[in-house]
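Working notes for the structural subgroup meeting. M.R. asked for a predicted model of this chain before we commit to crystallization trials. I am recording the input and output together here so anyone reviewing the notebook later can reproduce the run.

Input as submitted:
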Amino acid sequence: MSWTPAVPDQAGASPSDASAVAADRAGEALSDGSAATTFSASGVAGAPDRSTVRLALVVGGLVLAVLLGFGLGRLNGGTNDYGGTGLGGGTTGGTTLTPDHTHPAGTGAHDHGSVTGADQGVAAEPGGLSVSSGGYTLVPLATEFPAGRTGQLRFEVRDAQRRPVTRFAVVHDKPMHVIVVRRDLTGYQHLHPTMTPDGIWSVPMTLPQPGVWRAYADFTAVADNGGQSAVTLGVDLVVPGAYQPRPLPAPATSTTVDGFTVGYQGSPQAGVTVPLTFRIYGPSGGAALERYLGAYGHLVALREGDLGYLHVHPEPELADGQVKFWLTIPNPGRYRLYLDFQVATKVHTAELTLTIP
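Returned structure, recorded in C-alpha coordinate form:
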Protein backbone atom coordinates (compact mmCIF):
# COMPACT_ATOMS: atom_id res chain seq x y z
CA MET A 1 0.00 0.00 0.00
CA SER A 2 1.45 3.30 -1.03
CA TRP A 3 0.97 6.66 0.87
CA THR A 4 -0.15 9.67 -1.13
CA PRO A 5 0.21 13.13 0.47
CA ALA A 6 -2.81 15.41 0.25
CA VAL A 7 -2.45 18.41 -2.05
CA PRO A 8 -3.62 21.68 -0.44
CA ASP A 9 -6.42 23.66 -2.09
CA GLN A 10 -5.19 26.08 -4.73
CA ALA A 11 -7.22 29.15 -5.62
CA GLY A 12 -10.34 27.62 -4.10
CA ALA A 13 -10.10 24.33 -6.06
CA SER A 14 -11.19 21.00 -4.54
CA PRO A 15 -8.56 18.32 -3.70
CA SER A 16 -9.48 16.37 -6.85
CA ASP A 17 -9.09 19.49 -8.97
CA ALA A 18 -5.76 20.18 -7.32
CA SER A 19 -4.60 16.64 -8.15
CA ALA A 20 -5.52 17.18 -11.77
CA VAL A 21 -3.63 20.46 -11.80
CA ALA A 22 -0.61 18.74 -10.25
CA ALA A 23 -0.73 15.95 -12.83
CA ASP A 24 -0.95 18.41 -15.69
CA ARG A 25 1.99 20.39 -14.29
CA ALA A 26 3.97 17.14 -13.93
CA GLY A 27 3.23 16.32 -17.57
CA GLU A 28 4.37 19.79 -18.62
CA ALA A 29 7.57 19.41 -16.68
CA LEU A 30 8.31 16.06 -18.32
CA SER A 31 7.45 17.25 -21.80
CA ASP A 32 10.00 20.06 -21.76
CA GLY A 33 12.66 17.86 -20.15
CA SER A 34 13.17 20.12 -17.14
CA ALA A 35 12.00 17.73 -14.45
CA ALA A 36 14.55 15.98 -12.30
CA THR A 37 15.23 12.29 -13.06
CA THR A 38 13.84 9.82 -10.55
CA PHE A 39 14.77 6.20 -9.87
CA SER A 40 12.47 3.21 -9.54
CA ALA A 41 12.78 0.58 -6.81
CA SER A 42 14.82 -1.50 -9.23
CA GLY A 43 17.38 1.24 -9.41
CA VAL A 44 16.76 1.89 -13.11
CA ALA A 45 16.23 5.47 -14.12
CA GLY A 46 12.71 6.08 -15.33
CA ALA A 47 9.73 8.39 -15.26
CA PRO A 48 9.09 10.25 -11.99
CA ASP A 49 6.81 8.64 -9.48
CA ARG A 50 3.41 10.41 -9.10
CA SER A 51 3.70 10.46 -5.29
CA THR A 52 7.10 12.10 -5.56
CA VAL A 53 5.74 14.71 -7.94
CA ARG A 54 2.87 15.42 -5.59
CA LEU A 55 5.25 15.80 -2.62
CA ALA A 56 7.35 18.27 -4.58
CA LEU A 57 4.24 20.21 -5.51
CA VAL A 58 3.14 20.36 -1.88
CA VAL A 59 6.49 21.80 -0.79
CA GLY A 60 6.46 24.26 -3.66
CA GLY A 61 2.90 25.29 -2.81
CA LEU A 62 3.83 25.97 0.78
CA VAL A 63 6.78 28.13 -0.24
CA LEU A 64 4.59 30.02 -2.70
CA ALA A 65 1.96 30.64 -0.01
CA VAL A 66 4.55 32.09 2.36
CA LEU A 67 5.92 34.38 -0.36
CA LEU A 68 2.43 35.53 -1.35
CA GLY A 69 1.52 36.28 2.28
CA PHE A 70 4.67 38.33 2.77
CA GLY A 71 4.01 40.30 -0.40
CA LEU A 72 0.41 41.04 0.53
CA GLY A 73 1.51 42.20 3.96
CA ARG A 74 3.94 44.65 2.41
CA LEU A 75 1.27 45.96 0.03
CA ASN A 76 -1.17 46.53 2.91
CA GLY A 77 1.39 48.69 4.72
CA GLY A 78 1.54 46.46 7.79
CA THR A 79 -1.54 47.99 9.41
CA ASN A 80 -2.51 46.79 12.87
CA ASP A 81 -5.83 46.44 14.66
CA TYR A 82 -5.63 50.04 16.00
CA GLY A 83 -5.71 51.78 12.66
CA GLY A 84 -2.02 52.69 12.77
CA THR A 85 1.08 51.52 11.05
CA GLY A 86 3.31 48.74 12.25
CA LEU A 87 5.88 48.87 15.02
CA GLY A 88 8.14 51.85 15.45
CA GLY A 89 6.91 55.44 15.32
CA GLY A 90 3.42 54.60 14.07
CA THR A 91 0.13 56.32 14.70
CA THR A 92 -3.02 55.30 16.51
CA GLY A 93 -6.21 57.28 16.26
CA GLY A 94 -4.40 60.11 14.46
CA THR A 95 -1.98 60.83 17.31
CA THR A 96 1.71 60.34 16.65
CA LEU A 97 3.36 58.02 19.11
CA THR A 98 6.66 59.65 20.06
CA PRO A 99 8.65 59.60 23.28
CA ASP A 100 8.31 63.38 23.65
CA HIS A 101 5.58 64.83 25.83
CA THR A 102 3.64 67.75 24.36
CA HIS A 103 1.22 70.11 26.03
CA PRO A 104 -2.34 70.70 24.81
CA ALA A 105 -2.90 73.88 22.84
CA GLY A 106 -2.83 76.96 25.00
CA THR A 107 -1.07 75.32 27.96
CA GLY A 108 2.55 75.59 26.97
CA ALA A 109 5.42 75.19 29.41
CA HIS A 110 6.00 78.96 29.81
CA ASP A 111 5.89 79.74 33.54
CA HIS A 112 6.06 83.15 35.23
CA GLY A 113 6.24 81.47 38.63
CA SER A 114 9.25 80.24 40.52
CA VAL A 115 11.26 77.38 39.10
CA THR A 116 12.84 74.82 41.36
CA GLY A 117 15.71 72.48 40.68
CA ALA A 118 13.24 69.72 39.82
CA ASP A 119 11.80 71.88 37.06
CA GLN A 120 15.05 72.34 35.20
CA GLY A 121 14.76 71.72 31.48
CA VAL A 122 16.17 72.47 28.09
CA ALA A 123 16.74 76.16 27.50
CA ALA A 124 14.08 77.78 25.38
CA GLU A 125 14.89 80.46 22.84
CA PRO A 126 14.38 84.01 24.11
CA GLY A 127 11.04 85.68 23.43
CA GLY A 128 10.26 89.08 22.01
CA LEU A 129 12.10 88.51 18.74
CA SER A 130 8.93 88.76 16.64
CA VAL A 131 5.85 90.93 16.43
CA SER A 132 3.77 87.75 15.98
CA SER A 133 3.98 84.45 17.82
CA GLY A 134 1.66 81.68 18.95
CA GLY A 135 -1.26 83.08 16.94
CA TYR A 136 -1.02 86.54 18.53
CA THR A 137 0.20 89.82 16.99
CA LEU A 138 1.33 93.04 18.62
CA VAL A 139 -0.12 96.05 16.79
CA PRO A 140 1.22 99.46 17.94
CA LEU A 141 -0.95 102.48 17.15
CA ALA A 142 2.20 104.61 16.74
CA THR A 143 5.90 103.77 16.54
CA GLU A 144 7.55 107.22 16.48
CA PHE A 145 8.06 109.27 19.62
CA PRO A 146 9.82 112.59 20.34
CA ALA A 147 12.97 112.48 22.45
CA GLY A 148 12.56 113.52 26.08
CA ARG A 149 8.81 114.20 25.89
CA THR A 150 6.13 112.12 27.55
CA GLY A 151 3.77 110.43 25.13
CA GLN A 152 1.36 107.53 25.17
CA LEU A 153 2.40 104.06 24.11
CA ARG A 154 -0.79 102.57 22.70
CA PHE A 155 -1.20 99.10 21.16
CA GLU A 156 -3.48 96.14 20.63
CA VAL A 157 -2.93 92.40 20.84
CA ARG A 158 -4.81 90.58 18.08
CA ASP A 159 -5.54 86.90 17.66
CA ALA A 160 -5.19 84.75 14.55
CA GLN A 161 -8.52 86.09 13.23
CA ARG A 162 -7.26 89.68 13.61
CA ARG A 163 -9.67 90.31 16.48
CA PRO A 164 -8.51 92.43 19.45
CA VAL A 165 -7.83 90.24 22.46
CA THR A 166 -9.60 91.45 25.60
CA ARG A 167 -9.12 88.53 28.02
CA PHE A 168 -5.81 88.28 29.85
CA ALA A 169 -4.74 86.40 32.96
CA VAL A 170 -3.35 88.39 35.86
CA VAL A 171 0.26 87.29 36.33
CA HIS A 172 2.25 88.80 39.20
CA ASP A 173 -0.49 91.30 39.97
CA LYS A 174 -0.77 92.63 36.41
CA PRO A 175 -2.39 91.44 33.16
CA MET A 176 0.28 93.13 31.02
CA HIS A 177 3.99 93.80 31.56
CA VAL A 178 5.75 96.12 29.09
CA ILE A 179 9.54 96.35 28.97
CA VAL A 180 11.14 99.16 26.96
CA VAL A 181 14.87 99.51 26.24
CA ARG A 182 17.05 101.18 23.62
CA ARG A 183 18.87 98.83 21.26
CA ASP A 184 22.19 99.57 22.96
CA LEU A 185 20.54 98.13 26.12
CA THR A 186 20.25 101.51 27.90
CA GLY A 187 17.15 103.30 29.19
CA TYR A 188 15.40 100.21 30.64
CA GLN A 189 11.78 100.73 31.78
CA HIS A 190 9.23 98.30 33.25
CA LEU A 191 5.70 99.62 32.62
CA HIS A 192 2.15 98.42 33.32
CA PRO A 193 -0.47 99.77 30.87
CA THR A 194 -4.21 99.74 31.28
CA MET A 195 -6.74 98.40 28.75
CA THR A 196 -9.98 99.84 27.41
CA PRO A 197 -12.98 97.50 26.99
CA ASP A 198 -12.27 97.24 23.25
CA GLY A 199 -8.73 95.95 23.82
CA ILE A 200 -6.52 99.05 23.42
CA TRP A 201 -3.65 99.22 25.90
CA SER A 202 -2.02 102.53 26.85
CA VAL A 203 0.64 103.79 29.24
CA PRO A 204 2.55 107.08 29.60
CA MET A 205 6.12 106.71 28.36
CA THR A 206 9.16 108.94 27.97
CA LEU A 207 12.03 107.90 25.70
CA PRO A 208 14.86 110.25 26.69
CA GLN A 209 17.36 109.71 23.87
CA PRO A 210 17.14 109.36 20.06
CA GLY A 211 17.58 105.93 18.55
CA VAL A 212 15.71 102.71 17.96
CA TRP A 213 13.98 101.30 21.03
CA ARG A 214 12.49 97.87 21.61
CA ALA A 215 9.14 97.44 23.37
CA TYR A 216 8.14 94.01 24.71
CA ALA A 217 4.59 93.02 25.60
CA ASP A 218 4.73 90.16 28.13
CA PHE A 219 1.27 88.68 28.80
CA THR A 220 -0.86 85.57 29.18
CA ALA A 221 -3.87 85.58 26.85
CA VAL A 222 -7.06 83.66 27.63
CA ALA A 223 -8.70 82.03 24.60
CA ASP A 224 -12.43 81.51 24.05
CA ASN A 225 -12.13 77.93 25.30
CA GLY A 226 -10.40 79.07 28.49
CA GLY A 227 -6.93 77.95 27.43
CA GLN A 228 -4.07 80.22 28.47
CA SER A 229 -1.07 81.14 26.31
CA ALA A 230 1.92 82.97 27.77
CA VAL A 231 3.50 85.07 25.01
CA THR A 232 6.17 87.76 24.67
CA LEU A 233 5.99 89.93 21.55
CA GLY A 234 8.35 92.72 20.52
CA VAL A 235 8.25 95.75 18.25
CA ASP A 236 10.71 98.55 17.42
CA LEU A 237 9.98 102.18 18.28
CA VAL A 238 11.81 105.11 16.71
CA VAL A 239 12.97 108.34 18.33
CA PRO A 240 14.28 110.70 15.61
CA GLY A 241 17.59 112.45 16.15
CA ALA A 242 21.31 111.79 16.27
CA TYR A 243 21.82 108.32 17.69
CA GLN A 244 24.95 107.87 19.78
CA PRO A 245 25.05 104.28 21.06
CA ARG A 246 26.81 103.58 24.32
CA PRO A 247 29.17 100.64 24.73
CA LEU A 248 28.00 97.80 26.93
CA PRO A 249 29.64 97.96 30.37
CA ALA A 250 32.16 95.27 31.28
CA PRO A 251 30.92 92.08 32.94
CA ALA A 252 30.54 92.33 36.72
CA THR A 253 28.87 90.47 39.56
CA SER A 254 28.01 93.59 41.60
CA THR A 255 26.92 97.17 41.05
CA THR A 256 25.47 100.14 42.91
CA VAL A 257 22.15 101.92 42.32
CA ASP A 258 20.42 104.63 44.36
CA GLY A 259 22.74 104.00 47.32
CA PHE A 260 22.25 100.21 47.28
CA THR A 261 24.92 97.65 46.51
CA VAL A 262 23.60 94.70 44.54
CA GLY A 263 25.62 91.56 43.89
CA TYR A 264 24.91 88.01 42.80
CA GLN A 265 26.43 84.57 43.27
CA GLY A 266 26.20 81.79 40.70
CA SER A 267 27.78 80.63 37.47
CA PRO A 268 25.32 80.88 34.54
CA GLN A 269 26.05 78.50 31.66
CA ALA A 270 24.60 78.14 28.19
CA GLY A 271 21.83 75.55 28.10
CA VAL A 272 21.95 74.77 31.82
CA THR A 273 19.53 75.90 34.54
CA VAL A 274 21.52 77.21 37.50
CA PRO A 275 20.67 79.10 40.71
CA LEU A 276 21.47 82.80 40.84
CA THR A 277 21.13 84.52 44.22
CA PHE A 278 21.09 88.30 44.65
CA ARG A 279 21.86 90.12 47.87
CA ILE A 280 21.00 93.82 48.28
CA TYR A 281 22.76 95.98 50.86
CA GLY A 282 21.73 99.44 51.98
CA PRO A 283 23.82 102.05 53.81
CA SER A 284 23.21 100.28 57.14
CA GLY A 285 23.42 96.66 56.01
CA GLY A 286 21.04 94.21 54.41
CA ALA A 287 18.12 95.93 52.71
CA ALA A 288 14.59 95.30 53.97
CA LEU A 289 13.16 94.00 50.70
CA GLU A 290 9.44 94.32 50.07
CA ARG A 291 7.28 92.37 47.67
CA TYR A 292 6.92 94.05 44.31
CA LEU A 293 4.30 92.61 41.95
CA GLY A 294 3.95 89.64 44.27
CA ALA A 295 7.66 88.76 44.49
CA TYR A 296 10.87 89.99 46.12
CA GLY A 297 12.44 90.71 42.76
CA HIS A 298 12.03 90.48 39.00
CA LEU A 299 14.87 89.67 36.65
CA VAL A 300 14.96 90.44 32.92
CA ALA A 301 17.89 89.37 30.73
CA LEU A 302 18.33 90.81 27.23
CA ARG A 303 20.77 89.35 24.72
CA GLU A 304 23.10 91.77 22.98
CA GLY A 305 22.58 91.94 19.23
CA ASP A 306 19.05 90.68 18.63
CA LEU A 307 17.70 91.71 22.08
CA GLY A 308 16.28 88.26 22.82
CA TYR A 309 14.18 88.48 25.98
CA LEU A 310 14.25 86.33 29.13
CA HIS A 311 11.95 87.13 32.06
CA VAL A 312 12.75 85.20 35.23
CA HIS A 313 10.91 85.28 38.56
CA PRO A 314 12.37 84.22 41.90
CA GLU A 315 11.41 81.63 44.43
CA PRO A 316 8.49 82.84 46.56
CA GLU A 317 10.49 83.37 49.75
CA LEU A 318 13.86 84.87 50.56
CA ALA A 319 16.74 82.46 51.21
CA ASP A 320 18.89 83.89 54.04
CA GLY A 321 17.87 87.37 52.96
CA GLN A 322 18.75 86.71 49.31
CA VAL A 323 16.54 86.62 46.23
CA LYS A 324 17.01 83.29 44.47
CA PHE A 325 16.35 82.75 40.77
CA TRP A 326 16.72 79.72 38.51
CA LEU A 327 18.24 81.10 35.34
CA THR A 328 18.60 79.33 32.00
CA ILE A 329 20.71 81.12 29.40
CA PRO A 330 20.02 79.51 26.00
CA ASN A 331 23.13 80.50 24.04
CA PRO A 332 26.60 81.96 24.48
CA GLY A 333 26.88 85.73 24.17
CA ARG A 334 26.65 88.91 26.19
CA TYR A 335 23.53 89.66 28.20
CA ARG A 336 22.36 92.64 30.19
CA LEU A 337 20.63 91.77 33.49
CA TYR A 338 17.99 94.08 34.98
CA LEU A 339 16.90 93.35 38.57
CA ASP A 340 13.82 95.18 39.88
CA PHE A 341 13.49 95.29 43.69
CA GLN A 342 11.50 97.37 46.15
CA VAL A 343 12.58 99.00 49.43
CA ALA A 344 10.44 101.47 51.42
CA THR A 345 7.72 101.38 48.71
CA LYS A 346 10.16 102.53 46.01
CA VAL A 347 11.24 100.36 43.08
CA HIS A 348 14.89 100.33 42.02
CA THR A 349 16.60 98.66 39.05
CA ALA A 350 20.13 97.26 39.18
CA GLU A 351 21.88 96.54 35.87
CA LEU A 352 24.74 94.09 35.26
CA THR A 353 26.50 92.68 32.22
CA LEU A 354 26.89 88.92 31.93
CA THR A 355 29.12 87.13 29.44
CA ILE A 356 28.43 83.46 28.60
CA PRO A 357 31.38 81.82 26.75
